[in-house]
Amino acid sequence: MVREDWGQHGTAMIPQSAVIRDWIGDPPYLFAVTDVKKFDHDDRGADVEAAQFIAPEEPDRIVFNIRELGGLERDDKVVDHAVVVLHPFGQHELETIRRAVEADSIGKLFVLIWSPYDTVRTWLDGLGALNLHTREAVPASDPLLLAAAEMIQNEDYNGLGSGRGKDAVVQLVRAFAAEGYPVAPDTWLRAYFAVGGSFHHAESIEKLVKEMKAGTRHRVKPRYRDNIVEIMREQLAAKN
Q1: Is residue 112 left, alpha or beta, with left meaning phi > 0 and alpha meaning psi from -120 to 50?
Q2: Domain ranges of the chain
Q3: Strand order through the sheet with 29-33
Q4: Does domain 3-126 have CATH number 3.40.50?
Q5: What is the DSSP letter of 37?
Q6: Could you give the CA distance from residue 26 to residue 153 in angstroms, rounded to a whole number?
Q7: pLDDT score recorded for residue 187
């Protein structure tokens, strides 16, 4: 849920918080925040406000740092209680959340997003997460686009901002654009996240696609045949 949908100009925090409580279940309520030491009205007032509305009774709140979720995978542990993440933004904490979800270390996760344009929202959409405000999830990416995203992810080890990784991103986006697919960062990032892509490399994809949308012509070395989309389509058909 995006914060503006939660608050609705100060008119909806109570009913929207009830929706959240109904979804996450019984107390205690586990809140993961950027920095527990700054969890106060002076430094992270928005976090405190959200926690107080979602869990009105202070004894029901357990607040901890997002980075602590990283220890779950290392220790092979699972939190079977719902975790509420408040306004995550930094790449490191986003990666911590992503890895915890990928490792099935969190049984149930709710994220309150600061802005509708935050990358974490695109990640959640790519995973098919339910938006508690609309009660809907974004439709899954086209299978052909997912296949392209897997090809891009296979280049992660090279980096996607330059070299072979950049070549792959640019050529695939161009090839799909010729087939009518939008040159849109969200479209490509949703597919990339859906196949397990990381926030670190997502930054490079977003930058390249934005530049292409703005008309930048990147110089790249050929990686695929001109009819790569047709080849991929035939391969998908053969699998099905």
Answers
A1: beta
A2: 3-126, 143-239
A3: 61-65, 29-33, 83-86, 109-112
A4: yes
A5: G
A6: 38
A7: 97
